[in-house]
Structures are given as structure tokens and as C-alpha cells.
């Protein structure tokens, strides 16, 4: 692949996952550098520009604000983050926050599993091998749900 290949804004948007409007906005607020332009004024992007766009999209998915991601985007793509201890520490803290969110979402998912398991329309049909068709499950109530989601 030719690393000096030039891409239109439409091609850059497709490759990066950002919309054309978002790319223009990020250039306007100087999160992305101003691109080179053809003689007709059309924007031209290279692989480095697209990699920065992908980085922004990734950081955006982690929940960083545009201002929080600005120092990371301004680094070169091959920078060693340990050379920037304050940025390194901030990203570690952000990762810890994300891990806490994941744990919380797992607890919520577990709660939903419990509710769905106890939904009568989702119960398996009674088989002829059982002498009783009674449901011996623990009744669904707040105490039982909280107890099972903690364990």
C-alpha cells in the first residue's frame, strides 16, 4: 500500500468511521489539523490523518470528552505515552472508571437475567416425567433479587 496515497473527505470518513460533518467540525475546533487541499480547494487526507481520526473515534467510545482527548490526539502516533506521565496517569484513571462501569453493567445484566428467567412465558413446558407441575422457584421480590445480584 502506498503511504502517500491521498483520500477525499468521503473516503476518509468511510475509512475512519467518522462522518464528513464530524471531520469538518473536528478541524474547525482544531482537534484535527487542517488538511492539505487540492488546487480546487477540496480537502486531501493521508493515512496519518485517517489514523488520527480512528484514534479520536476510539477515545470517544471510551467516554473521553473532546477536550480530554485533545492532548492524546496532538501526540504523534508512535509516541511513547510513558514519556508523558500526566497523560499516562489520566488514561489509567479513565481505564479504571471504565472497568467500574463494566462491572456495574454486568450486575444490571445479571439482574435482567433473573427477571427474564422468572417470566412465566419463558418457562420451559412441564414434562410428563414429573409428578407435580408446581413451580418450586423462589418468588421474585426485591430482597431475593438484591441477594442474588450481590452473590
Automatic annotation (TrEMBL):
Cite the CDD domains for this sequence: HTH_YyaN (cd01109)
Residue spans crossing the bilayer = none
InterPro entries per UniProt: DNA-bd_dom_put_sf, MerR-type_HTH_dom, MerR_fam
Write out the entry's keywords from A to Z: DNA-binding
State a single Gene Ontology molecular function: DNA binding
Coiled-coil annotated spans: none
Does this UniProt record's set of keywords contain DNA-binding?
yes
Does Lipid metabolism count among this protein's keywords?
Answer: no
Query: Domain of life, per the record?
Result: Bacteria
Specify the HTH merR-type domain's residue ranges. Answer: 6-75
Q: What is this protein called?
A: HTH-type transcriptional regulator ZntR
Source organism of this protein record: Paenibacillus nuruki
